[in-house]
Design goal:
Structural class: alpha/beta
Largest sheet: 3 strands, mixed
Shape: elongated
Strand content: 5-15%
Number of helices: 6
Radius of gyration: 18 Å
Number of strands: 5
Order of helices and strands: HHHEHEHEEHE
Strand order of the largest sheet: 3-4-5
């Protein structure tokens, strides 16, 4: 699994001894240090997603693009990884553009949600998320969380005017 995370650096021809420390730090960041010698087939789906996140961080991009990375996971693992992603975001100070078809997932992970139209994909509405930085899975049951989820759902199904920012 460690070699999997190292792959982008190896492809770029960087010296393994120079990037080994970086990879070790990334594995620690995603909580997989003790699994670094495992093969991909020995890891759970959630662990494989964390390997993918670590691999994407090896080149230290300013923005991390994630297109439904948790869609194939069970609900419990998905909730756990969402909390872990927020911790990774805080630790690495990365901007994350996260694509999701789940309103709940979008509200939980975001500072701002951009709803797109279907065919052609255009900006339908923009919603600010003011739930604070310290989020736990329990916030999903809060009134502000439910209210914002309802506003977004209504916006999608009732067709609010494009480009209106909601506060």
């Amino acid at each position: 699994m460690q070699e999997n995370v190292e792959l982008p650096l190896e492809v770029l021809g960087q010296n393994r001894s120079e990037y080994r420390h970086t990879v070790d730090q990334l594995l620690e960041t995603v909580g997989l240090t003790k699994f670094k010698d495992y093969y991909p087939w020995q890891l759970s789906g959630g662990m494989q997603q964390r390997v993918a996140i670590a691999r994407s961080l090896t080149l230290d991009p300013p923005i991390l693009f994630m297109d439904e990375p948790f869609s194939a996971l069970d609900a419990f693992t998905k909730d756990k990884l969402q909390v872990e992603l927020l911790a990774i975001k805080k630790k690495t100070k990365k901007t994350i553009v996260f694509v999701s078809h789940s309103i709940s997932e979008a509200v939980f992970l975001s500072d701002r949600i951009i709803v797109l139209t279907a065919h052609p994909g255009r900006i339908h509405s923009i919603h600010s998320v003011d739930l604070g930085e310290e989020r736990t899975a329990l916030i999903r049951g809060s009134e502000p969380f439910q209210t914002l989820s309802d506003v977004i759902r209504t916006s999608i199904y009732q067709g609010q005017s494009p480009l209106k920012e909601r506060k």
